[in-house]
Amino acid sequence: MSGFGRPPSTIIFSPTPPERGSFPLDHDGECKPVMQDYLACLKKAKGTNADECRILAKAYLKCRMDHNLMAQDEFRNLGFQDEGKKEAEKVGTGGSGSRLEELKRENEELKKRNARGR
């Protein structure tokens, strides 16, 4: 009778905190344009981890660090350890380097569009 009112095999859930702790939300929208660019990139790339989206993800994390919305950390600790190698390879291959420059220009245009939309 001690289990009266509840199922007999109830599993007790004990939550665990996130590894890196919690961080404040961006209530003032300081990093919102970069976040919107990143989400648009993910939609365009159909959810794949494309290089142009990784550049935007890195920019978003940098914005959060710059505005004290997350703790300062090195990008290699956040999963960007091979970014320097990838960019060097792209520039060294000729045609792919121009693609990277094109994506950077497109990113700047998106930022300008978002700034005008505010």
TrEMBL record:
Signal peptide: none annotated. PROSITE patterns: CHCH. Residues 1-25, 79-118 are annotated as: Disordered. GO terms for biological process: mitochondrial respiratory chain complex IV assembly. It is found in: Cytoplasm. Its main location: cytoplasm. Residues 99-112 have a biased composition (Basic and acidic residues). GO terms for cellular component: mitochondrial intermembrane space. Keywords: Cytoplasm, Disulfide bond. InterPro entries: COX19. Belongs to the COX19 family. Required for the assembly of mitochondrial cytochrome c oxidase. This is Cytochrome c oxidase assembly protein COX19. It comes from Choiromyces venosus 120613-1.
